[in-house]
Amino acid sequence: MNRKIVFIIMLFLGLTSMAEEVRFTMSAPDMVSAGEQFSLTLSLNAEGEDLRMPDLPNFDILMGPSISQSRSYSVINGKMSQSVNFSYTYILRAQSEGTFTIPPASVKSKRETYQSNQVTIKVIKGRQQATTQSQQGNSAAGQANNGQAKTGTVSRDNLFMQYEVDKRNVYKGEMILVALKLYSRVSLSVADQTIPSFEGFWAEDIEIPSAEQTQTREAVDGIIYNVYTLQKKILVPQQTGTLYIEPAEMVFNVQQRVSPQSLFDDFFGSYQNVRVPVKTNRISINVKELPSAPAGFKGAVGKFSLSSSVDKTDIKSNEAITIKTKISGTGNLKHIAAPSFSFPPDFEVYDPKTSYDYNASQSGINGSTTFEQVFIPRYAGKFTIPAENFVYFDPSSQSYKTLSTNELNINVEKGSDDQSTTVVSSISKQDVKYIGKDIRYIKTENPSLKTRNRLFFGTFNYYFSVIAVLLAFAFFFFFQKKRITENSNLALVRNRQASKLARKHLNAASLCLKNNQRDEFFEALSRALWGYLSDKLTLPLSELNRDNAQATLSKYSVEENTISEFVRIIDICEMARFAPTAVNESISDLFGEAEMLISNFEKQIRKKA
Fold this sequence. Notes:
With 609 residues, this protein is of the alpha+beta class. The chain has four domains: 2-124, Immunoglobulins (Immunoglobulin-like, Sandwich); 133-288, no CATH class; 297-413, Sandwich (Immunoglobulin-like), CATH 2.60.40; 490-608, Four Helix Bundle (Hemerythrin (Met), subunit A). The protein has nine helices and 32 strands. Helix 5 packs antiparallel against helix 9 and helix 6 (518-536) packs antiparallel against helix 8. It starts with a helix and ends with a helix. Residues 11-18, 129-148 and 419-437 have low confidence and may be disordered.
C-alpha cells in the first residue's frame, strides 16, 4: 500500500515538474469577404478560467465559445509528462470592408493572467456567390462504367489553376521565376496530372517552403480562394524569340451534391465524386538577344564575383599545380564556361574539373561554380600566367561587366627527373690480367712505324668530321626551331590534340553510361562533340553554334550525311538536358554513333585541312 502511495506522489511530482510554459494564442483567417462567416480560435495549453474577449465592433458574434480539450502523455528517460490543450472557438461575421485588428483576449491560469496575441483581418467587398456545387453537380457529364466517378465541370469561380511568372520580357540566359498555383473553393483531391517539359528552357526546381505548402487565402475578383502552390521553378531561356510555357493539366476528384432523382432517394440529396479536368493557359515569353558582346564573353548572365588562386607557386619541374577559379553570385551558374588561361607552351595542361554548389530559391539560383585545372611545368624557370578576363551580362543594368583573375607567377626549380637534364655516360676502364706471367709477351715481328709530326688537320677524316658536325648542328637547330614554332602555334596544337581530348570526354560519358547517370552522360557527350569541333576547326567555343558549325564543316568538304548526323546527335543531347521526357533514343546506341561521328570527322576533315 505504501509503495502505491509513493508511486502516485512521484507520478504527480513528475507531471508537475514537466509542466510546459503556458501559451495562449489567437488565430483567424487573414482575409475574409464582407458578410462571410469565419472561425476565431483561442488556444491554451493549460487549464484556464475567466476567459475575456475584447470588444468586436466590426464583427458579429454568431456563436461561441465552443470549448474542446485534448490531453496526451509521454515518457522520456523514465520521466512522465502530460500536455493539455483547450480550444475556444467563436463564429464571427464581418460587417463591412476594411482592415481591422482584433485586440488580445485574456484568461486566468495557475493564478496568473495571460494575454493572447492580436490578429489583423482584411475584409474585402463581397461578391454574389458563384453557382453552387449542387447546381454544378447536375451539369456533370455521362456516367462512367463499373461505378467510376463521373467526368464533369466546376465553375471557374470555384476552381481554377494558373501559372504565375515574375517577368515575360527577358534576355537570353536571364532567370524567370515560375509558380503553378491552384485556386479552390471546393473539397478536392488530385487524380492525375500532366506537367509540361518547358521546351527551350533550362529548368531547376525550387523547394517550396513549409509555410507555402499549407493553403493560403487570396482574393481574386472579389472572391476569396484557398490557394495551394503546387510547383515552383527557375527557367533559363536557351534561345531567342517567342518561347511558350505550355499548359499544365490536372484532374481532380471533386465532391458534388446530387439532387434526389426519385421519391426513394434521400430528401436532402447525396454526394458523389466527379472527375474535373483543369488546365492552365499557355504563357508566352519574349526572349531578347543579348547586346553586342565584348571579347571574352561566353554566355554568363547574372551578377557575379570572381576569385582565383594556385595551391603553390614554388615547385620543382614535373610537379603538378592546381589553379582554382571560383565564380560566385546569382545567375545561370551551370552554363558558365571554364576560363581559358594562357599557359606557357611547355606546360602540360589537363582539362578543368567543374563543381557546382548552388540552390534555387525565390531570389534565383545562388551559389558558385568552381573550376580546378591541373598543369605540370616540364622545365625549370620563372613563368607568368597572365590574368584571364571573365565577362558577364548584368540584366539589371543591361550592360556587360568584366572581372579579372590575378596574374600568377610560378617559380619552377630543376627537379631530379627534369627532362632537360643532360645525361653523360662514362665508359669504365678494364684492367688487364696476366695469369702466370710476370712480364708482357715480347713481340718478335717488325713493328709498323708512323711519322710522329704528321697532323690530323687537313686530312680527309678531318674534313669529314667537320662537315658531319655542321650537318648535325643544322638538323638539330632546324628541328628545335620547328618544335618551338609548333608549340607556340596554339591553334595547331589544339588541332592535333582534338581527337585525344574528345576521347577523354567520351570516356567520361561512357563512365556516366555505366553508372546510369543520364543527365551527366548527355552533358559529357555534348561537350565532347562541341569541344572537338572547336579544337579541330580553330573556332572559339563561345562563338560556335549549330549554323556556323555546319557552314565551316561544309567548307572542309565534310559529307552532308556526316553533318546531318552531327546536328541530330547535338539536338538529342540538348533535348535530353532541357526536355528529358521527349528523348526516346537508346543512349548506348547514341554513344556508339558519337564515336563513329568523330572517327568520320577525323577522316574527312583531314583530307581538306
